[in-house]
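Late entry, uracil complex.
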Amino acid sequence: MAGEVEDQLRAYVEYLRDLGVHDFYRRGEPVVFEEPVAAPVAAAAEVQPAVVKPVVAPARPVAVQQETKPDIFKPDFAESSIPKPVSFDLLAPLPASRLAAEARPAALKAILDEIGDCTRCPLAYAGRHTIVFGEGDPSARLMFVGEGPGADEDASGRPFVGKAGQLLNNMIGAMGLTREQVYIANIVKCRPPQNRVPEPGEANTCSQFLLKQIDVVQPEVIVALGATAATYLLGVKQSLAGLRGQWHGCRGAKLAVTYHPAFLLRDPRQKAEAWKDLQMVMKEMGLKAPAKG
Ligand code: URA
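Prediction complete; structure with ligand written out below:
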């Protein structure tokens, strides 16, 4: 019984997370309002005697308090210790040219070698078995980016091979493509314990390698699967609803945001919405759904 409740709770937390509700488990320090201490303008340049600011909580009018209430969709990075996500476009200059197709497999292998037996972030010590680099056509027109490996991926070393992966395969098939024709990778390459969301430090540490993979493959279109992929690729922390249904940019590619397949497994009613996102991608790429046979 207790296990059942725990499973339900975990599913609900993941459901919220996939909707883009981040960090609802850590809202930061409670807000304490300080009474503003006005210094006379003329005396601003002079050394002021130390002023002990009286702490009065709450000291602001009700309307202002409502404005400053923590917003779970837009955590106040300036006031928190959570590093602000930076878009992949700002992390490094865009590549000036495109690698020849025959040079791309070796370039990807060089990134894999650079990663080595990585111990750059805490995920290396959190029960990881295999680094899940990513796979697919080094010249793919379309790249999917997920969040991070789960148990099946950690065991096999391949991205999206579990239940969510089977659904992703179906999504790719419905677009008239095969898994071998696309490239699939994740924001982090090591499994976070209990499949939790990667911490910003982990995602930021790992980003450099995904960025290099994108620059080698240079897909025309990237599909961000879920809120974590969208957050780090675009450098924004927004609900999926605010990001879906429009084109974004990432490393010279067009980027679309859709639901994570794991979310669609939990809430299959949203599959129709995800299909709209994929149709937008298909239209852009001139793809046709295979005839039903
Ligand atoms: N979920 C992900 O985000 N990535 C995987 O590779 C598997 C499940």
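Residues 146-150, 153, 159-160, 164-165, 186, 262 surround uracil (CB under 6 Å). Will revisit in the morning.
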